[in-house]
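[09:14] KT: can someone run the structure on this one? pasting the chain below
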Amino acid sequence: MLPAYGTDVRVGDLRTQFSRTFDTDPKIVSDRIWTFSPSIDISESFDSGVRLPNGFGKDYITRITPGFVTSAETRRLKGTFTYNPTVSVYALHGGENGVAQNLNTNATATLVEDLLFFDLRGYATTQPILGGLVTPGSTGSNRNSDVQTTNFTAGPYLQKRFGDTATVQAGYAVTRSTMSSLAAKGTTPLVAGINSNFTSEQENASVTAGPDFGRITSSLSAMATQYEGAGVYNGAHNETFSLAVGYAVTRAITVNSSIGHEVIAYGPGGPKKIDEITWSGGVHLVPNADSSVTASYGRQQGGSSLSFDGNYAPATRIRLMARYSQGIGTGLQNLQNALAGTTAGPAGIPVDRVTNAPVQLGSLLGQQPGVYRTTSASVNMVVQFDRDTVNLGWTSTDRMLLSQSGGAGAGVGSNSGMDGTVAWQHLLSEALSTNATLQYGIRNVPGLGGGDSTTASASASVNYALSETLSTNALISHTQTKGKTFGIAPTRDLVVLGLHKAF
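[09:31] RB: done, structure tokens below
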């Protein structure tokens, strides 16, 4: 099953992301094996909705973000390292000062040619505990409303290809994942129990048929994961075994099926153990060279559901993307699963390993403790003109609580939310671009008294390149939340003036 996250092309430079994703403007390949690109961003913000220990207030915030991007592509080593820590200094509320760690790196080292490799991944970011809409272009964190997450994975793997007959792979990986609130104490039910961590070990092996089998594709795979941590992670483990077979009816249509077995078990306080047969059936379509659609229905992770992942180009300037998935896990487990399918893209943005599309690693509902069955859906349409790029997006997330992970009273129970986005970028000249974004979201948290919370946000920004290495930017936004705010500021006005320098 796909991780419970959708594709996101809302944040940042839509035209640049569109080009990078679909190769409409391929970048020039550097003749340097190693590259190093330092930079620094300095911004001054006015924020009327800063969350404080006793409510909300306004403040003037200075943020400094040094950036370090290193890439390597040698015979023995390929990878990208991106590190952008943000230092936030509050003029009126010094207790909110802090440093947010932002890291995305992946590297693969060849130890023995065509046989033995070593993978290393690292990811760190801050995300809002309380969720809500994210203003495109805004950066930084607030100690009373954000959580710092980290994920580090390392391990060797063997991969051997036996001509066109088969490819065999086997590997081992150890992962350390943490989630901790930036403030010393949580102040709302949404924050209580959020701090958690685990160490996991994973073993995997697979045999995949090669071109010798013609229209038939097949793979036999097995994976086992063991967790060490407190609460539901104490003694948790899962094992999966599956046989997948596909048949190419035509060059554009392949029917797929799979059968296997899985065990999913959690520690004390966790949901009931799952020990059952898994199966699925579906189809993979390739309508044209720029499109790929995969749809299936089956039973996995204790439930039967549809799985869909599509990227369709009906015309040169239009891209449609949709994803639907369901899965079981905690917030940390979902992050680990999502990262397994991404790599570090330009500027450290996580991108899908297959499509290179930017991937959203959060949602309107924010971070919550507990084991959930999460159902996620997303639809995006990107239309590109000569000087304009328009994005229409919709996402939906439903979380059904299966077990509390932080003890009695932690978490907020089952909850759901959906949001829509309209974003427009216009190029006034090669040096000057503007962005306008409208967002609307609805969320429901029955465990905190029921009722819906609605949030509407409008933002506009401008970016001007003073030179090839120096640019300025400005942003203004207004966000209004009605109904039960769940700890989010009812009204928030944000103004940001920034400077970016590349070296």
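[09:33] KT: thanks! The first strand starts at residue 34 and ends at 52.
[09:34] RB: yep, looked fine to me
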